[in-house]
Write a structure and sequence with these properties.
Layout (H helix, E strand, L loop, with lengths): L1 H13 L16 H11 L25
């Protein structure tokens, strides 16, 4: 019974999602663009928890404010 309820809840949630497609190509992905994205979003490093940052990155870079 729990599996059926879980499946119904997942289906009712996932079927209503309408993600937007972000059309980017290889020319849009570059080191400066990725760095700009990381600074803008605060997602520095390869994960949101910053565990892949080298120890030398102290304090963590903060996004620039306009």
């Amino acid at each position: 019974m729990a599996a059926v309820v879980a499946a119904v809840l997942m289906a009712s949630t996932l079927l209503t999602l309408r993600p937007e497609w972000l059309s980017i190509g290889p020319s849009d992905v570059s080191t400066p663009r990725l760095q700009e994205y990381e600074l803008f979003t605060g997602n520095i490093g390869t994960s949101v928890r910053y565990e892949w940052l080298p120890r030398s990155v102290v304090p963590r870079p903060l996004p620039l404010t306009p």
